[in-house]
Design a protein that fits this description.
alpha+beta; four-stranded mixed β-sheet
Length: 92
């Protein structure tokens, strides 16, 4: 799976990591629903750090179609809300 972090680039991520990322996605959704800005910031940072840690960065010149697009680290609650699907940011 190819994941793009807005403003940063793409990483190749094994589908086996989706369960771990979905747990963080669920936390992020709960914090957004409750208006917990500090929790939202912390979990978004953890989610993006996990993608960076678990994935392999693609070269800047490689432009692969992204299977998943995640917000930038400084995205606002409203910006992330606009990116949500019925399954959150991460399908599954």
């Amino acid at each position: 799976m190819i994941v793009r972090i807005m403003g940063e680039g793409q990483v190749r991520l094994d589908d086996g990591h989706l369960t771990e990322l979905n747990k963080l996605d669920d936390e992020l959704l709960a914090e957004m629903e409750s208006g917990d800005e500090a929790g939202f910031r912390r979990t978004l940072s953890t989610l993006l750090d996990s993608v960076r840690r678990l994935g392999a960065p693609l070269p800047d010149e490689a432009l692969e179609p992204s299977d998943l697009i995640l917000p930038s680290p400084d995205a606002t609650l409203d910006e992330v809300r606009a990116m949500l699907t019925d399954e959150g940011l991460i399908p599954g």
